[in-house]
Design a protein that fits this description.
The chain is about 40% helix and about 25% strand. By secondary structure, it is an alpha/beta fold. An eight-stranded mixed β-sheet has the order 1-5-4-3-6-7-14-13, sandwiched between helices. The two termini are about 35 Å apart.
Length: about 325
């Protein structure tokens, strides 16, 4: 079994990625109110801080998904064991949840490929090294890709005998507005074959106090994660943000059906961003949105699958019905 790592975020791809980053910042800071997408935070350090978030006792999306994987790993195995298969994980991070499935497949002596894809080079490198240290004599081959999702999917060698099982976990789809989520899963369907499976994690709508608690930890990890965005902007774009001039707060917004995180400027000041060649004014206590986590109902999930060309195979819930990993089959 082989364990490989490839960085697809170099050369032309890196330049394109840097241009996309700068454009997203320009557009976001030019909006009223200001709003930047959360993917900007995920450099290597941002990914490590987010791993800390997933380990917080009160962060239910991660805890619920761990429980789902433990309780339903045999159901997933039964679904996949009928065919030769390959597991592709989009935004793999540290891969901790997925290891529950991988270990179960290995214990069942299933031969399979695992392809973790993540924009963080450090996260993918560390994951491949860890898996090799632990499973080098197993029935699993690993090819880690540091890449954007669709660049990574395009780089995967087509093998008609393998059924793809794509994982998009952790409520990441909730970071998208509903139209963008539909566009994403449609594009994903176009990248896959008839009969492939997609497993998506959805955080479900629940008591607003539960949502508030999940995104406002007393230890300040969420604030550290959001404020890290300013470090990234300073490093990548030559900005002169002063982190001490900002604070963070998460809110549930009933109008958007999402938990939204904001960083607030505590004073009036101007930030210059060298790469953009522009000044940006921040008023005292002006908010800038940095995260958006939409909370789904089951009917919205089923409508999204139907409209996007999938058949729902199974919903896997935690014991409190706070979260669902929904397995869809590609139909073409």
């Amino acid at each position: 079994m082989s364990f490989e790592y490839h960085n697809l975020r170099s050369g032309t791809a890196a330049v394109s990625s840097d241009d996309q980053f700068a454009q997203a910042v320009l557009e976001g800071l030019s909006r009223e109110p200001k709003r930047l997408p959360s993917w900007l935070i995920f450099d290597d350090r941002g990914s490590r801080i987010f791993t800390e978030i997933t380990q917080l006792a009160g962060y239910h999306p991660a805890q619920c998904e761990f429980e789902i994987f433990q309780n339903h790993k045999q159901a997933v195995t039964d679904l996949l064991a009928k065919h030769a298969f390959r597991v592709i994980e989009l935004g793999a991070g540290d891969g901790k949840k997925t290891q529950i499935l991988l270990e179960h497949f290995i214990q069942g002596r299933l031969a399979f490929d695992y392809v973790p894809i993540d924009i963080s080079e450090g996260a993918v490198k560390n994951l491949v090294a860890f898996l090799e240290s632990r499973f080098s004599q197993s029935t699993m081959s690993v090819t880690g890709l540091a890449a954007d999702y669709f660049d990574g999917l395009r780089a995967i060698k087509e093998q008609s005998n393998l059924r793809n099982f794509v994982l998009f976990l952790g409520s990441t789809i909730g970071n998208m507005e509903l139209p963008a989520a539909e566009l994403f899963v449609r594009k994903l369907r176009e990248s896959l074959n008839d009969g492939d499976y997609l497993m998506i994690g959805f955080d479900l709508m629940k008591h607003p106090k539960t949502l508030y608690s999940a995104y406002n930890d007393s230890t300040g990890v969420f604030e550290r994660f959001n404020l890290h965005l300013l470090d990234v902007l300073n490093r990548k774009l030559g900005a002169n943000f002063v982190k001490d001039h900002y604070v963070q707060q998460g809110h549930y917004n009933p109008g958007t059906h999402a938990v939204e995180s904001y960083i607030y400027s505590t004073r009036e000041h101007v930030v210059f961003i060298e790469v953009l060649g522009k000044d940006f004014f921040f008023g005292a206590w002006e908010p800038m949105q940095t995260e958006h986590s939409y909370k789904y109902t089951q009917s919205e999930i089923e409508l999204l699958a139907e409209k996007s060309g999938y058949r729902i195979v199974k919903h896997l819930f935690d014991t409190h019905n706070h979260f669902v990993d929904s397995i869809w089959e590609v139909k073409k």
